[in-house]
């Protein structure tokens, strides 16, 4: 038995499908745990991809800090609500990060569903990542 290899085309199509299924969706990108762009929906140029990667990495860091300090578990999702847009940020089980932007007229519930479905099926589209070993330092 052979294992299917995730390709940029497969991932790009999956991200395009997310954007296509929700009216008002603007973009979808997936980053590796270390911030490298793995895939993007159509219309994302290099400059926008770089900006999105930086922004999503910052959200990931804030979300992980919040989970560590305030929560008791892993980071699953961050939703940023702006006056005329939303940004969904979700961590997949294999460590990759999905970010999807929608305008203020889009159905937030529909996008939340699409994000949850993508995360649940991420193994079909993404390679597996190993979790980095984190040293715990005792505070004195």
Salient structural properties:
140 residues; alpha+beta; disordered N terminus; five-stranded antiparallel β-sheet
Description:
This protein is of the alpha+beta class. The protein has 3 helices and 5 strands; from the N terminus they run H-E-E-H-E-E-E-H. The protein has helices at residues 8-21, 46-70, 108-120; strands at residues 25-31, 37-40, 77-81, 85-91, 97-103. The protein has a 5-stranded antiparallel beta sheet with strand order 2-1-5-4-3, with helices on both faces. Strand 1 (25-31) and strand 2 form a beta hairpin. It is globular, with a radius of gyration of 15 Å. The termini are far apart.
- List the secondary-structure elements in sequence, H or E: HEEHEEEH
Give the neighbour order of strands across the main sheet. Answer: 2-1-5-4-3
Q: What is the average per-residue confidence, as pLDDT, rounded to a whole number?
A: 83
Main β-sheet description:
5 strands, antiparallel
Helix content: 25-40%
Radius of gyration in whole Å, from Cα?
A: 15 Å
Q: Give the beta-strand count.
A: 5
**Helical element count?**
3
- Structural class given helices, strands, pairing? alpha+beta
Q: How far do the termini sit from each other? A: 53 Å
Q: Name the poorly predicted regions.
A: 1-5
* Range of strand content: 15-25%
Overall, the morphology is: globular
Strand and helix map with partners:
Layout: H1 8-21, E1 25-31, E2 37-40, H2 46-70, E3 77-81, E4 85-91, E5 97-103, H3 108-120
Antiparallel strand pairs: 1-2, 1-5, 3-4, 4-5
